[in-house]
Design goal:
Shape: elongated
Number of strands: 18
Distance between the termini: 15 Å
CATH architecture of the largest domain: Roll
Low-confidence stretches: none
Strand content: over 45%
CATH class of the largest domain: Mainly Beta
């Protein structure tokens, strides 16, 4: 049987802590996944003849990279794609949150610090604060989902004095803070199957470090497919010629019975 690769499969990562991998998490529904190995060679050309012949080569450096497109931008993937610190925000309330330091003008857009906002009450800063009325002085955009509002009238019910302050409730939400995660390494494995012959292949990489996604198309006619480059590092606790190798290994598992 020919070992053609027309690949499908799933990739998984496990965070390395003191060289020991934790539980694996699937990088769901990758659009592409490819790896390449690189060597940098030294060369010597003899100087005894007029032809300057190449008479020796040797390997100076070894390395590798993985390139993948990740269309599922879930929290686990976003953590890796954007070097993000993912946190959970519990449902709670905000009180006297300043949303405009000065009195806004009609047409201004103001924002709350949290999305999924409900029970919004906006007051000004007069001695006895006056309340702006929803549907008269302002309109919540998308029912408060994004925590933004349009000022449509700043006269009725006034005069108002800045700053404006908001009281509101907000729902539970998740946050990925970009470029804020610690520098981390992972074990990466790819469980592959070839459509050409139904054969299974297992690829294992001992030390993988994620770079950031090159770009994420937030407006497009197709699903966004941010590309991420992953550096493959040597695990010097393993021997180069041993069972595991220092960068990884490929195991042919054949066709299931």
């Amino acid at each position: 049987m020919k070992d053609y690769i027309a690949g499908r499969g799933r990739a998984m990562v496990a965070k390395l802590v003191n060289g020991v991998p934790g539980a694996f998490v699937t990088l769901s529904n990758l659009e592409s996944f490819s790896f390449g190995l690189t060597t940098e060679k030294g060369e010597h050309y003899e100087s005894e003849t007029i032809n300057s012949l190449l008479d020796a080569t040797w390997v100076n450096k070894k390395g590798g990279t993985i390139e993948t497109e990740m269309s599922d931008i879930n929290k686990a993937n976003a953590r890796l794609m954007f070097s993000a610190r993912v946190s959970e925000v519990a449902a709670s309330t905000a009180t006297a949150e300043v949303i405009s330091a000065a009195l806004p003008a009609v047409g201004d857009i103001l924002t709350l610090r949290r999305g999924l906002a409900t029970s919004v009450v906006i007051k000004d800063s007069t001695g006895s604060p006056k309340t702006l009325v929803a549907g008269v002085n302002y309109n919540l955009r998308d029912g408060g989902v994004f925590g933004s509002l349009d000022i449509v009238d700043i006269t009725t019910g006034g005069p108002f004095v800045g700053p404006l302050k908001a009281d509101y409730s907000y729902g539970a939400q998740s946050r990925a803070t970009l470029l804020s995660a610690a520098d981390e390494e992972y074990v990466l494995r790819f469980e592959g199957v070839s459509k050409a012959n139904n054969a299974r292949y297992l690829y294992e990489f001992w030390r993988a470090k994620f770079g950031q996604a090159d770009k994420t198309d937030l407006i497009s006619a197709d699903v966004a497919k941010p590309k991420v480059t992953i550096s493959l590092l040597a695990d010097t606790s393993k021997t180069e010629d041993g069972e595991f190798g220092q960068f990884g290994r490929m195991t042919y598992l054949g066709v299931p019975a």
